[in-house]
Amino acid sequence: MTARTAPAVATTTTAPSVAPRAPQVNLLPDEVRVARTLGVVKRWVLASAAVTAVAIGTVAAVAQLQTHTADADLAQAEADTARLVAQQAPYAELSTVRTALDETLAARRQVLGGEVLWSERLGALVAVTPDGISLTTVDYLGATPVAPVQASTDPLVTTGLGTLTFAGHASGVPDTAAWADALDALPGFSDARIDAVRRDDSGGAGGLPYSVSGSVQVDAEALSHRFDDVTDTQGES
Predict the structure, then answer these.
(1) CA distance 47 to 42
(2) How does DSSP assign 148-194, residue by residue?
(3) Boundaries of every domain in the chain
(4) CATH 2.60.40 is right for the domain spanning 118-222
(5) Are 213 and 196 in contact (CB under 8 A)?
(6) Percent helix / strand / coil, the chain, rounded to 5
């Protein structure tokens, strides 16, 4: 027997039909739409105001905290200053003594700054005086704490601290150039001058027949500087 095959049946699929979207029409009145839009705007405004308020509050809080910190630092600094002042109180008398000491040292420097050890200078003057000469007078004219030194009238002389003048009698006419050179070679002396050598028939002191006179400038090398180290030491302590 021969099997029969059923004939194929054709099927047709039909796509469902889509209904067209109905047009939408906003039937709300304009007043309602404006009110809704205004409400949205108000909400945004309120939100912005809230954010601004929070920001301002934060800034104010930070500023308040900084002010509080600054006040605390100032109070601490004032307390430290008061403590240091209190610690200095026991030394107030020491400060007064130190001031008085400084004034004393300054006065001593003013008075003794121009000190010359005359025993050394006069000894040197006598040592270089030529044999046969006897000095009878020695005078010094120089600056004082209240008056400056008088300038020399000799244009070839450099004015020093003062002028040392001397006079005496001689048994003969001395070598004035050699005498002046010997005086200039002494520390603290400069620009020596033998002003006059005269015949003295009166015989003078000891019957010596000649009178002599001269002068020499006393310069800064003659200063003793005895109190310089003491003054500097006191100033550094």
Answers:
(1) 8
(2) PPPPPS-TTS---SEEEEEEEEESS---HHHHHHHHHTSTTEEEEEE
(3) 29-112, 118-222
(4) no
(5) yes
(6) 50, 20, 30
Tokens representing residue 236 in the block: 């550094």
Joined together, the tokens standing for residue 131 give 């044999």
Sign of CA dihedral 88, 93, 94, 100: positive
Angle at 28 (CA atoms; ends 23, 34), nearest 5 degrees: 125
First to last CA, the chain: 145
pLDDT string in tens for the chain (237-residue length): 444 544 544 444 554 555 566 566 666 677 777 777 777 788 888 888 888 888 888 888 888 888 888 888 988 898 888 888 888 777 777 777 888 877 777 766 666 666 788 899 999 999 999 999 999 999 999 877 677 787 877 888 888 889 999 999 999 999 999 999 999 999 999 999 999 999 987 756 567 889 999 999 999 888 887 776 554 444 444
Name which of 221, 174, 209 is nearest 195 in CA terms.
174
